[in-house]
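Incident log, support desk, overnight shift.

02:14 A customer reports that sequence design results differ from what the structure should imply. Their input is reproduced verbatim below. On-call engineer (initials T.W.) acknowledged and began investigating.
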């Protein structure tokens, strides 16, 4: 297979299909999503056979237990894919919405209309259910998409692709509106991210190495985040019970997510009262604490933190802890070390909460809430295609609206400029 030629053909077909999807009605796109759900339900045996091939090859290639778990399509995960399609079909359609219409002194009306981005390339690893999630969000928001999953899930992804094609065809949409790359050759990724004539935006979902490589080499815009170095700051005027609940949840609810707290900051005014109790609670859950000298004085069981700990996204039961001299030092620490993902303050002081919201430069900033809420579903987006820590276009959890842009629309009645 000539990879350059193959990917260029996918790009041409996606660009053509994107125009058909953009002009389709909400009802048509919803029909395609619901028909895909039915096709997945009818293809459970085929999906199981394809997935078994991927799992067998994964074991032969020495994939670890966590990777094999993410790769497996259990009946429950197929149920979840089907339910996800139906939920996306039920979401409001952002396309065509016109907002901000105002009359100008000239007599014309000016506003903005929400429109699809066009063709979205999505690069992801391991989990075949991402194929359905990504395709459904792109389709609902009026976009065509090219999906490049990991080589370890090639058989599963191709089986899912056939269901997506059936769903599109049943709604009268081109099957090329959703294309799953059929080759495992890594050169396909290099081609996909350097085709600005066909692809409008790239969304990478995977490890830091993958995202760094795509951000470095892409010639089209990338929606992404690299790290989730999330902070919780316990202010001197925090409610102790709230502080305990939020800090424990933010760290221990799940360890391997990008919105898990990795650094805890505690105001010196309450450190002596709160840190020993927090340390005991974390120890009960098997969390290792790495602290500053003031933390070590209060929690002798902690180990000394190094400079690298303030930058670390552990994705593990390890937590960096620092005692700070009030809000100013907390904000200074966060803006220096944060990955601009999610940061939270626990306080009963409204003025300090407002300062934190205003001055912390992250895509999600919270007051008296666990960082684990930084999620498209929890924000009411219905679903998300990822989280962006960039500042242009989409920021934070990216749902349907993040897969669109706005263009100006002007209404006149024979108006001319004088």
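02:41 Re-run completed on a clean worker. Output:
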């Amino acid at each position: 297979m000539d990879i350059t030629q193959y990917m260029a053909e996918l790009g041409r077909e996606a660009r053509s299909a994107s125009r058909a999807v953009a002009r389709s009605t909400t009802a048509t796109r919803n029909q395609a999503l619901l028909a895909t759900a039915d096709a997945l339900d009818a293809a459970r045996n085929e999906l199981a056979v394809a997935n078994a091939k991927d799992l067998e090859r994964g074991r032969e290639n020495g994939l670890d237990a966590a990777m094999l778990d993410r790769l497996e399509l259990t009946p429950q995960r197929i149920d979840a894919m089907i339910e996800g399609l139906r939920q996306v079909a039920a979401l409001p359609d952002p396309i065509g919405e016109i907002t901000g219409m105002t009359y100008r002194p000239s007599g014309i009306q000016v506003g903005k209309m929400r429109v699809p981005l066009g063709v979205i390339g999505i690069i992801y690893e391991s989990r075949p259910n991402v194929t359905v999630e990504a395709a459904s969000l792109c389709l609902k928001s009026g976009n065509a998409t090219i999906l490049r999953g990991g080589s370890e899930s090639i058989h599963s992804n191709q089986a899912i692709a056939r269901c997506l094609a059936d769903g599109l065809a049943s709604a009268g949409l081109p099957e090329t509106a959703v294309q799953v790359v059929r080759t495992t050759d890594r050169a396909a990724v290099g081609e996909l991210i350097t085709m600005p004539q066909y692809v409008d935006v790239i969304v990478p979902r995977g490890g830091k190495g993958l995202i760094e490589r795509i951000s470095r080499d892409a010639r089209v815009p990338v929606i992404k985040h690299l790290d989730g170095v999330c902070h919780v700051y316990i202010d001197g005027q925090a409610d102790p019970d709230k502080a305990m609940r939020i800090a424990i949840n933010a760290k221990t609810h799940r360890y391997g997510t990008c919105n898990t707290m990795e650094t805890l900051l505690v105001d010196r005014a309450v450190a002596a009262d709160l840190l020993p109790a927090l340390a005991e609670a974390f120890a009960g859950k098997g969390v290792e604490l790495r602290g500053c000298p003031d933390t070590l004085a209060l929690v002798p069981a902690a180990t000394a933190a190094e400079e690298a700990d303030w930058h670390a996204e552990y994705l593990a039961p390890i937590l960096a802890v620092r005692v700070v001299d009030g809000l100013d030092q907390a904000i200074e620490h966060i803006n220096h070390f944060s990955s601009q993902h999610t940061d939270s303050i626990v306080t009963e002081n409204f003025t300090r909460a407002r300062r934190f919201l205003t001055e912390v430069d992250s895509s999600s900033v919270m007051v008296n809430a666990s960082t684990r809420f930084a999620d498209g579903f929890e924000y009411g987006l219905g679903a998300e295609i990822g989280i962006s820590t960039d500042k242009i276009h989409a920021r934070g959890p990216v749902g349907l609206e993040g897969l669109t842009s706005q263009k100006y629309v002007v209404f006149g009645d024979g108006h001319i400029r004088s």
